[in-house]
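User: I'm putting together a small comparison set for a docking exercise, and I want a reference complex before I start. The sequence is below, and the ligand is iron/sulfur cluster. Could you produce the 3D structure with the ligand included, as structure tokens?
Assistant: Of course. I'll restate your input first, then give the structure tokens for the complex.
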Amino acid sequence: MNYPFSNQIMRSFQPDTHLASSLSGYVYREEQVKLAGEIAACMESGGQLLAEAETGTGKTLAYLVPALRSDLKVLISTHTKALQDQLMFRDIPAVQEALGIKRGIALLKGRSNYLCPHRLEKKLTDATLEKWARKSLLKVLKWGETSLDGDLSGLSFNPFAKGLGGMFTATAEQCLGGKCPAFSRCPLFKARQAAQSADVVVSNHSLLLADAELKSGEFGEVLPVFDCTIVDEAHSIPELACRHFGRQIGLNRLTGWANDIQALLTEFGDEEALTKDIDRQFLKVLQAYMDDNLKATLVAWQPLISQVESRRQRNEDAGKIADRALGIAADMQSMIEPAEGFVAWHEGSGKHARHLLAPVETGPVLVEKLWSRPCSFILSSATLRISENFTYMQERLGLNDAQTVFHPSPFDYSSQAMIYAPRHIPAPNEPNYEAILFGEMEALIRASSGRAFVLFTSHQMLRRIAPRLADNLPWPVLVQDESGSKDLILQQFRKDTHSILCGTRSFWEGVDVPGEALSLVIIDKIPFAPPDDRLLQARRKRCEEKGGNGFFDIQLPEAIAALRQGAGRLIRSQDDHGVIAILDSRLYRKSYGRIVAKNLPSAPKTEDIADIQRFFTVYP
Ligand code: SF4
């Protein structure tokens, strides 16, 4: 088929073009040009494309050029805030300038990023508000009067760290929408209006999925209608879809509702009897919830519904609170008796209990709510394939008929990297496991002089090994949940070249540390999900009912996808050199070990630590 737009886009990457001469740091990359052409053709044909573009292909530029040169309305959705900021404040302005074009660009974030003036002003009328909190809220009020966009990242402090954020942001459940008295000055709705009139909107997967869920529920919409949606970091969509198309009940949601109804009744000033009744009834709800009895919680919840229903007509807020009570009851009911295709479970207990409901298979839900829209979809990531095959991800996404393309990394792993995978590591249940694991980690980190990521598959092992590394090594050891927020830890890690970062799952992906600060990635185990993961169990069961193999078709591909993400942290540029160490002898002992090994970067492998020591003398 002939795609004139695609041909035009591919031509614009040639070395003699304006883009090539004006974009700082531009280098001609064949795989990038091919990918840009495929993306442009997909935009032209209104199709669906799954593109695995390995690190270094330059996929951002490959989709930005067609997105900015087309006259379609385009959404670019990312998983991480880091990529969102990079697109908005660095890449899009640079590419627009290099192309000499000026399309309207808007950034749209999730609700919790914007000031809700209605809730802030109401909270300030609450006489029971503590003095320190009132002082902070007054600061927010003052800031809100001059802020251009009400984006809370402009505040000089993090309101969520102080537990104040919920007082001046509105969840979808709390927001009054068009009936809100502060609607005309609402930053969230102004941001949505800006997105309506923009040509290209940068947003995130949470918003994309929330929009899909809301549109199908007929409650309104979050995002405008697009001609083309580009989903970067697309490997994270299935996991996020489980959360968005499922339900959650936690103590926060219940107490948040109780606080809001009590504040409203106080505001009415003439509801003393009802206030006492609701207080009494809510105590029964709490008791049942703490006993981990969801059925009893729902029974105790029912009278609260009648109590708030009786005041529904008093004002908009009362109506909204009654709706929320109904919504909470409906969600509890859906967890007690999950509908066909859903699984319910709970995590933690007492006040830490969380009840969850999720679709067992995300593919059909995504087809129904997202991919069936009249819009072209381009999904891109560095890791979409398992054993060089897209089938697993296509099924997870529900994109079985999408076109698939693969673009290899321009990096030369055979000279830039080495894989260390010793076979003598005992099984984790053997008594000397931890000592040997620690010894290996220490020797590796000494060889690389720090500059290491140590990625653990469990918090327990992180807590046991990280302090010992800190005691034994001469370089700073940064530990997840102990050395500050994720951003702060990464900042420190980049700044202190020889530091060591110990973390679990949240550091396995979306982390970019090019250069010598990261020269060694140690992975303690093949990252299988814990066997008691209820969603995974349900997915395995469903797979076996269909005649598949739960381990090989579900659990193993999940672990390989996570491992590929973890290993992908190492080589981020043509000048990077480094070692990936996988300290799990199941690579040799188990039949699936060979499949896992096949999915690692194509670097030379060794079992001899002396090779690693030599590697780091060549690339100190
Ligand atoms: S419309 Fe919603 S988010 Fe905006 S001010 Fe009103 S309640 Fe807050």
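The radius of gyration is 26 Å. The first strand starts at residue 48 and ends at 53.
User: Thanks, that's exactly what I needed.
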